[in-house]
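Lecture 7 notes. Example A: sequence first, then its structure tokens.
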Amino acid sequence: MKAIVARCGFRCDLCGAFVKNSSSVTDRVQVAAAWSKYYHVDIKPESIRCYGCLAAKGRGFDLPSTACAVRRCVIRRKLDTCADCADYPCTTLEKSIRGVEKVIKKFKGKIPKREFDRFIAPYDARTTLNRLRKA
């Protein structure tokens, strides 16, 4: 699958909540358990059906939220992602990715690589956006 990058730099194509990746109940149960464990969020597995912020309208589980400030800004500026913005990185993006970066720092190298790659790495927005800016 080709890389699908959310407006903020999350990797939808690697995210277990993205509808094309969460084909089974088992997948969604694993994602819900991992998000609870690493991000301390309580999401029911049946709610994990993300169409992502690239979708025209939110459907099902909406994460990243269609109400996301980063999403609104990127759309308003008629950009694909924050990587295309002259103001990158801005306070709106920094505020949005701060929590995930804390989780990355806390768990990188401290949990099995497979778990990190599956449940944390897809949300390393800064790395993704920096790669896009260099391309």
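Example B, a different protein, same format:
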Amino acid sequence: MKTIVTTLFLSFLSCCAFGQDKAAISAAEAACGPREVQFDITADKSQHPTPTPENGKALIYVVQENLGSTRVGADGKWLGGLQREGYFSVSIDPGEHHLCAIAHIGLLNHVSLHQLNVKAGETYYFLVHPVESVTSNNFAISQVDPDEGRYAVAKAKLNASHPK
């Protein structure tokens, strides 16, 4: 009986492993930066800049809620790192962009992705936040409306990050 249960369990695991499309996963994760890059992140409570978009560009604010540390990237390049209750902003060119957030939760890295069409002169706000889900992701990067975004930025601490 143990042999039958073990065989069924191993068959189930191999089925799940073969069900993954590794090429599609790699293509989707192309929005992220190189996996090996990690950040040193510091919170600066003495500053709270809230810039406006540069001429001909858009501005993205990313605010992290109740999570450990997260790396945020766009179009295959890391924009920066975040810690709990932190934020940063970055200028970005108009057009289509693909955002990526990787959060280290427990022993695993979890990925969340978001597509965005950016217009010059506009400001966009994103929250990196925990979610309850039946999937393996327990966090998301989500665009929020400007009122919610400004409120989240006002409550957060400026995060400065540098690759290790």
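Note on Example B: The helical segments are 2-18, 22-28, 146-155. The chain has one domain: 29-163.
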